[in-house]
Amino acid sequence: MPSLSPAPSPDSTPTTRRTTTPRTTTAAEAATRARQAASAFAAVPLPARASLLRDLSHTLGENAVHLAAVAEEETRLGADRLRGEIRRTQAQLEMFADDVEAGAFLDVMIDPADPDAHPAPRPDVRRMLVPLGPVAVFSASNFPFAFSVLGGDTASALAAGCPVVVKAHEGHPRLSDLTAELAADALPPGALSVVHGREAGRGLVTDPAVRAVGFTGSTSGGRALFDLANSRPDPIPFYGELGSLNPVVVTPAACAARGETIVREYIASVTLGHGQFCTKPGLLFLPAGHGLDDEMRRVIAATHPATMLGSWISTAYRTTLTELAAHPAVRPLHLTDQPEDPRAGAPALLTTTAEDVRAFPELLEECFGPTSLVITYTTPQDLLEALPALPAGLTATIHGQEQEDEELVRRLTGALQAGRLVWNGWPTGVAVTPAMHHGGPWPATTSPLHTSVGSRAVARWMRPVAYQNMPETLLPAPLRRANPWRVPQEVNDSSTRRGAGRPAG
Amino acid sequence: MPSLSPAPSPDSTPTTRRTTTPRTTTAAEAATRARQAASAFAAVPLPARASLLRDLSHTLGENAVHLAAVAEEETRLGADRLRGEIRRTQAQLEMFADDVEAGAFLDVMIDPADPDAHPAPRPDVRRMLVPLGPVAVFSASNFPFAFSVLGGDTASALAAGCPVVVKAHEGHPRLSDLTAELAADALPPGALSVVHGREAGRGLVTDPAVRAVGFTGSTSGGRALFDLANSRPDPIPFYGELGSLNPVVVTPAACAARGETIVREYIASVTLGHGQFCTKPGLLFLPAGHGLDDEMRRVIAATHPATMLGSWISTAYRTTLTELAAHPAVRPLHLTDQPEDPRAGAPALLTTTAEDVRAFPELLEECFGPTSLVITYTTPQDLLEALPALPAGLTATIHGQEQEDEELVRRLTGALQAGRLVWNGWPTGVAVTPAMHHGGPWPATTSPLHTSVGSRAVARWMRPVAYQNMPETLLPAPLRRANPWRVPQEVNDSSTRRGAGRPAG
Fold first, then answer.
1. Is residue B281 within 8 Å of residue B247, measured between CB atoms?
2. Which member of A481, B227, B315, B434 has the greatest number of CB atoms within 10 A?
3. Average pLDDT, stretch A34-51?
4. CATH code at A350?
């Protein structure tokens, strides 16, 4: 959720720990406790680990009313949205519990010894994934549950067998402590702690005990912590989900067939949650002469200003919007005075052309909040030439007509660099489902291989270990011939594939 | 392959391109050609991609005599070893060809739409891995085939569908050009190029077209390029295989049962390929009072000095060995004058105690070449207390007695941080087999999640993309219901697992 210009963020103001509980502590204390808990936690058998995750989901459900009330006080996201987000967070925990029970996430591969392998005999090699160790999670302002203390990063790291230390977002410190307190009853000591404040966050990233970091937030904040993680004497993986423009492309055929519906849904997606989603569609490509300006103005004018997550968000929104609107290449479609309440933001819609987007890269900065940029293109060629100028994103969406647009859509999907391609829909509302990919090349994330949503999110917190010629009794359970944990084992014996071999060196 | 002290490396001397072929070029030219080739190469269907890899293996086999002769002139690794390494390199190419044909590496997951999912209806989500784009590969001095122009990094990147630009090692520039020239006939234009020299290497790491880097070499060189990759405006993944001490632990029971055999095999492993393997056992833990000093002296004295890969290697070896041998905590078991030929190295064996290893971290630096440090421990507790002082490695080896040592071995496997655990064997000789893991936490590699050998090596060069509600005709072939490429598809429908859902935001 980056902004056009540097804006004060809660992390850049002097930090005050507004709430203290016995479980909040310094980064070094929390990291040490996580390190001490790591090997026992890694050894928790899969069914028990799955139970812990289900217990956490149950705890969230049991306390949903109270949790949502505290969250509403701090975030103003609205009770319905917050209750829905708690259910989503429960669904995430339960999905990872299912995955832990199924055991496929251990990625077990077994190559039995093959004395006849070519070019050399091959030993028995068995490989599985093991937990990396303590993980630091930086939670997000805009998802106080789903990307916070018990959110997807924490759930996937616990599923992997890693203790977690969460750096709470200062937009919801009381909720963070309350969530951690409720979770503590379900978890072994040291498996989950919460720390507060910018210095504690930096302390986690540089603490020798911390083996990986998950982050959801701004490009500037994420980049600073990414650089810090890489500058350690022993660099550690840093998985940052940063910003995204989430372009939506409407083909001429789709615009002709259902332009009004598309722009109505578009504005609903832009203003959902008051535009405070990393998947908010920030750009809409429409054919020139679309004739939909009045309809867009009508719909967005009916959306009222609302309180944003914090004054640092509304300030950044207003600053970025003002700069974009003042750009000579931009024309406002709908732009009103901002409300007197400094934490509120009024929706806005701006427009420009594909030609100007190519000419002015400064138009392609994320403006976090209820606004978007409508970009008109003259011809499909004009559209296709503009797309390479876009930074890679978490999502890209195409509205097209399946039959008429087949060739154009192929070229569009080739030109749009994104982690998720949505067809005739909207990017907001990331389904919690095993195949989901929530990621993308820089600047969408710091790590193009990984996702923070979906089953594969667990892979961020694990590393492979191969065991060579280890006897059955000394092997970890998932690698034994007897397979006591009943995990999927990919066995490559010489009858199913060519034997590769071991050379002299 | 790091050394105790900074030593001149070929990359730190003024670079001279000793050989020029039409295919050697500047980094920018090679990267541009790779970028231009990328989308066509990514679109090569799997069977054709597998054929390219098999053609490359065939080319190596056809030209083995000539290639080995050129390699021998440049590296002095010996004709037998080099012919064996060519067969290993062929086996790698063929293993990836098998994997490409099987299609499991695409990691296809399909979650069909589920209107009844809880807590919200879920769209059709289909995910697969796609190639990252052009890859830069830094080849190693000590494997002029298996970790060079057509080595594992290149083979896995081509398997992933990524064009490759290789930064040739200056230890074998003619072989690198010759290999690339032979390979060119089997590959589409732009799919493989070779560049030479330190500046070209740095140019590749910072070139906007390059999307990931594979590296095998020294800790200092790897760290510098890792930092460069991360300091880009758009950081890219950097997979560096750096140094490793490869400790070998012999339990008291194993020492009593077969101490002489163990130390004979140990010295054979230490001096294999004249100690120029990243998996050379650099440390041997023996119980105090082992009584094997004479046997070790006898065996190593029978191993003659030999020409090393280059004078930069022999110089670093001599410098590091001299420093280690002069350490007050170290006693030489076998140490002779070095030969007059400055490119040669004489084998050596040093010894110290577990207590001193804890006290003097400078003893735990890799000395690349035919030497190793024998470490005596007084009790199993003394041994277990020393192990946490070791840096993580590519391998760790245990020689034990299955029955008697069960409890001790469990504690040892918990204490040894390594990518591969070898039982009653030796770490040199990395089997080319799907389950192999050749990696490990820092400082073994820059990326603990990944391997440079084995089937999973391909994953370094791919990123996920999810398609949401995309019609059959517009989906990539591996994601279609009709599954025309017959790839494994993991389908999660609501009958096989709980439906997770889509919340409001």
1. yes
2. B434
3. 97
4. 3.40.309.10
